[in-house]
Write a structure and sequence with these properties.
Blueprint: E1 9-11, E2 14-16, E3 21-26, E4 31-37, H1 41-58, H2 63-79, H3 81-92, H4 96-116, E5 123-125, E6 131-139, E7 143-146, H5 154-166, E8 170-173, H6 180-191, E9 199-202, H7 206-213, E10 221-225, H8 228-239, E11 245-248, E12 253-257, H9 263-274, E13 285-291, H10 295-307, H11 327-342, E14 346-349, E15 353-354, E16 360-361, E17 364-367, E18 384-390, H12 393-400, E19 405-406, E20 408-412, H13 416-425, E21 430-433, E22 448-449, E23 452-453, E24 466-474
Parallel strand pairs: 7-8, 7-10, 8-9, 10-11, 12-13, 12-20, 13-18, 17-18, 20-21
Antiparallel strand pairs: 1-2, 3-4, 5-6, 6-24, 11-23, 14-17, 15-16, 19-22
Helix pairs in contact: 1-7, 2-4, 2-5, 2-6, 3-4, 4-5, 9-10
């Protein structure tokens, strides 16, 4: 197995160590595997200056130059797929095959945005003779970006890809629990010749970093993926400077299962996707609303497949689900399960920690969960599913919309009128029908309500990294 990389800050094209560090722990073994550097105020000031200078250089490059370099970095990361995936499995615990796929997904984000960099078209607005109105899209400036721990490579890739492809510079704060993916991204861009200061990587105490970077006048955009509570806090800091934000926040994804669907296929595919990444996914299917007529059949198949999930160390062959990220997630899961059972829910499988070493938790299914149970309003962010019966599609949609979140939602039906009703009425930024794929590089991704603001990916993905300038040009007629 490849050794876990030595972790450093990357500022102005140079790697630097720090005096203070934090441990990186393998959640499968509880063994420390590395130390992540804690950035000082001086480090952050250096990163701000570097990003400011880097932007002055990078924003003047042609879209073709930017696109070619981003593609070159993505190609290098594809070559290093296994090395990056091994580091991800070591720090996060997810099965190695899933880590490999995450690396490829991250590369696809870079490749898509590299193409979009060539398509940030302006337009000429028809006008009177002697007058030209021209709309330009220009890079917004240095970006402060914050990525979460659940996808160590693909989540930072989204933000780095959008910023660099658009002509911006970026200061990326990687998650302290899982920093290696972001470090590999920085290394790839260094190796393909990205100018110094365009990409800067920092880590440390989250509150210290955000409170120093976001209010600084040199930061022109804040991009964040994480919890709704933290997103609201960072948006508040940014608002004092009128700094725009791009927020991809929490969800609590509903799944509507209609009576006309293939029940067994829907149940099996849902169980597999629910346990992906140990349920630590903002789009994870969690609240299942199943029509009365097929409820018992769906519940039986779904529960059986969840219980059969192979849980273990991500490097072991055949493992489908690794550990939770840390002991705080174990405590949160216990609290949600205990509360649900106390108010009358049925615990059909799971509900307990597995073993004493590693942060493993059983795949868990709760049925007939009352509306006032805490888990009906709080995203579990773990391997826990809720399965409730409903008497109609209208009731299912009402239940689906009953939380303040609207990131992803899913539906299973073969009726076009049912599908149309879901499209019209389900409150979510991403609705998937007869599939549990919520996000692709070529499609816009983001939420409504308390699930955030803005979109990453698709043709819309670069819009937040640019500003619109209208030029009115009066030409003297000779």
């Amino acid at each position: 197995m490849t050794e876990y990389p030595e972790l450093k800050l990357f500022i102005n094209g140079e790697w630097r160590a720090t005096k203070d560090t934090l441990p990186v722990v393998n959640p499968s073994t509880d063994v420390e595997i590395g130390r992540v550097p804690v950035a000082t105020i001086e480090d952050l000031e250096d990163a701000l200056s570097a990003a400011d200078e880097g932007f002055a250089i990078w924003s003047q490059k042609s879209p073709k130059e930017r696109s070619d370099l981003v593609r070159a970095a993505a190609a290098l990361m594809r070559e290093r797929q296994d090395e990056i995936a091994l580091a991800i499995t070591a720090e996060h615990g997810k099965p190695f095959r899933q880590a490999q796929l995450e690396v490829i997904r991250g590369c696809e984000f870079f490749e898509w945005d590299a193409g979009e960099a060539m398509r940030t078209y302006g337009r000429v607005i028809p006008s009177a003779p002697g007058v030209k109105y021209i709309v330009h899209h220009q890079p917004i400036g240095p970006v402060a970006a914050f990525s979460p721990w659940n996808f160590p490579m693909s989540q930072p890739a989204r933000k780095v890809a959008g910023a660099i492809a658009s002509g911006c510079s970026i200061i990326l704060k990687a998650a302290e629990e899982t920093p290696a993916g972001a470090m590999h991204i920085a290394k790839a861009f260094e190796d393909v010749g990205l100018p110094a200061g365009v990409l800067n990587l920092v880590s440390g105490i989250p509150a210290d970093i955000s409170s120093h970077l976001i209010p600084d006048d040199r930061i022109n955009l804040v991009a964040f993926t994480g919890s709704t509570a933290v997103g609201k806090h960072l948006t508040g800091i940014a608002s004092d400077n009128m700094t725009p934000v791009l927020m991809e926040l929490g969800g609590h994804a509903p799944v509507i299962v209609c009576e006309d669907t293939d029940v067994e296929a829907a149940a099996i595919s849902s169980a597999i996707r629910k346990m992906r990444n140990a349920g630590q996914v903002c789009t994870s299917p969690t609240r299942f609303f199943v029509h009365d007529s097929i409820y018992e059949q769906f519940l039986d198949v779904f529960t059986k497949r969840c219980a059969e999930t192979v849980v273990g160390d991500g490097m072991d062959p055949g493992v489908e689900m690794g550990p939770l990220a840390h002991d705080r997630r174990i405590a949160a899961m216990h609290e949600l399960v205990s509360d649900a059972v106390d108010v009358g829910s049925e615990l059909l499988t799971g509900g307990n920690r597995i073993g004493e070493t590693g942060q493993f938790f059983e795949p868990t299914v709760l049925a007939n969960v009352p509306d006032h149970a805490k888990v009906m309003q709080v995203e579990p962010f773990g391997p826990l599913a809720i399965v409730n019966a409903v008497d109609s599609l209208d009731s299912a949609i009402e239940q689906a919309n009953s939380v303040p979140y609207g990131l992803a939602a899913y539906g299973f039906t073969n009726r076009s009128d049912y599908a149309d009703r879901m499209v019209d009425r389900v409150e979510a930024g991403n609705l998937s029908i007869n599939t549990l794929e919520a996000s692709l590089p070529e499609t816009p991704f983001g939420g409504v309500k308390s699930s955030g603001y803005g979109r990453e990916g698709g043709a819309e993905g670069l819009s937040h990294y640019t500003v619109v300038k209208n030029v009115s040009h009066s030409i003297k007629v000779v």
